Amino acid sequence: GESMPDIEDWLAGLLAVYNQGQAAIWQDYFAEFMQDELAELGQLCRAAATLANDAGLTVYLSLLQSDAAALTQIAALAANGDWPAGLTALAELEFKRLPAIRSKVEVDIEAKEKVQQLRKQVKDGCAALLREASPLLNGTLSEELRSQAPLAEALVNLALAYYQAWQQAKRRRRLLEFADLEHYALALLRDEQLGVAESLRQRFFEILVDEYQDINEVQESLLELLSNGENRFMVGDIKQSIYRFRLAEPSLFLRRFAAYGRGEGGRRIDLNRNFRSQSAVLAGVNFVFSRLMCGGNLEINYDESAMLHCGRPELPQEPVELLIIDKAAVRSSNGLPTLTDGEAVLDENDDVNSANDLAGWSEKTQTAKLEDDLLEEMQTAEMEANLLAAKIREQQAQGRSLSDMVICCGPCGVGPPYLAKFCGRRKLPARRMALTIFSACLRFRWCTACWRCWIILGRIFR
Question: Tell me: the pLDDT tens digits for 152-161?
Fold first, then answer.
């Protein structure tokens, strides 16, 4: 609540929804929720269809594509505000049984089971959505909200009493939190008799805001009071929004992003040209994130306007390669001890309810767990180092110089020093290859990733 400009009014507004049985608010929320859920279920259908096509399970394709198309149409109804028609269509949607595969050709059993599992997720998701919508379909939502009003009132009163007691305790001890500074500043700017806001508005020619994707409601109110309405310049990237746990509200950025894109209220400038990397690297990045960030509950739609475009097409084109180490297989082939994958064996003195908390374990178990973790980290570092050495030798055989290679790894644990030592044993001079923590001042030309470590063949900007 401290991220809201008027905390007590905000709490009262929450309570009014229940006291007055304001079903319309929940209907708007549900329409958006329904649209997002159907979009995700449609994506699962398309993923199942893609997998079926790749695995030669073509007999499934027609049905899976039909399911995906139906869900897309229902999602469109919800997006246009006609959620009742969307729910009716969803209730009438029939998931026909997948046809039997009678081909004599060997079938990819794993792919077949995965396709069936994805389709079951879709069916279960649709059923869950209809269960959530039952108060809307039955017309009982307003009544249910009013019946829950006493519980909502008790929670709101408890939150309000705690907030007021906390404020009084801080005043007695003459203490302030950062949120208090924001709210006191907001109170000063809102007081028209003092004229602070008007004086500052005349003083500031431009208001420049960085990291706008991590702003909250209080900070937005402060900026609105300081601005004359035409002198705000905001920079942000919704993909870098990481402070929601500190009550940032990314939707403030998203609303302006969409409105300015339509020319409403301001101008949007998309800074999507990248001058550090070759187009193949950017294509790899765009490929991954366009599939991870697809709107819905993720809120971010990695579309054409969000994709990175190469600003230096003259750079040589090299493929991007991702290498994944099967650690269990490497351990087995090299005769390494099998680890417990983070699970410790507890003795009779351990707290069985603290399986992820060392404080609940005996000293013996704590020591065994720490030794196990260290052993796993050292084994992982050696596996990665072996793979890196092989790739470096491969690149050397193709005429590349060690001075064009950079090994980048995380700053903690045994990785960096172990890699440096391993390079020495393999007669690969770590200094010449710039063994370093990842730096942004690299011009990418070739990259291979093995979970935590990367080799980047590129020249460091001078």
Answer: 999 999 999 9
